[in-house]
Here is the input.
Amino acid sequence: MSAIRDRVLGLAGSCTSFRGLVEGLSSENVDPCTAMSVVAHCTAVRIASNLGASVPQGLLAPAITEPHGGSNLQNVTTSARMTPRGWVVDGVKWFVTNGLYADYFLVYLRANDEPAVALVGRNARGLKIEPMKLSAYTCSGIAKVYLRNAEARVMGKTGREAYRSTLRGIAEARVLLAALAVGLGKTVVSYAIEWAKGRGITGLQAVTHRLARAHAILKTAEGYVHTIAGLIDEGKLEDWTAASIAKYVAVEAAIEAVTAARRTMAGHAFIDEKLQSLQQHIEALEPAEGTQDIQLEIIARRLFH
Here is the structure.
């Protein structure tokens, strides 16, 4: 576990340069599991930083999603209350990336019936962690987290500020996931090109045009994602709908790359373990931080506002 933790923290750095994070995640041959862990860690770090709270050293896991409410912040049921020994938390969180390896959990909840963010240490009393059986990103330590009178520290201010800071963190995570989708899509296209060369079928336009189209769509998505990352670093991103656009176009571009590769490799695509793994990781990005339909709903609300 320490090796995984060190690798993720090494790639994440301080999480302050958004452009740097996006460049790393969108690079070809990016490791999907390490990358997903970086996304989660930096999401938690930036939520805490947005609240003006000090961030402890170690690997963080954002605990936001719940079994029945998903990642809808308004439906959260996890709660914190003050006791003679300090704050304690009750609730259940699912799909907690880094959950199996994290030193700390950044938990979104309600404290005194107001939105709040609390920090729970890995060794806190009342904390139980279980692995989740998933077909993708299992090596990102995704877990269920049960909190039963778990000792915690409420971070920063509660209320609207905690809500807005967490909402912004989720929007930033969408941009990071978009970058990962681009990186995995580029890996798929390059892999399919090398496979086609090995088969001697690069003289067929049905092959070359298909992969060229996937490449062009990915490059367009990559340019948009990098632009948004730059605006975030400069503090100039005023419309967070752009984060939903980034995630939507990048995931669609990556799926297009998978489709192009499968049509190029034909029956071999169903026995090629590398392509199947890449496809699973790309498809798993679709529901992350809001499905593609949710992203379209966010975009549509902005258009018809």
User: Anything to note?
Assistant: The mean pLDDT is 94. The beta strands are 60-63, 79-83, 86-96, 104-111, 114-121, 127-131, 143-155. The helical segments are 2-12, 18-25, 32-50, 160-199, 205-234, 241-265, 273-283, 292-303. Residues 45 and 55 are 7 Å apart (CA to CA).
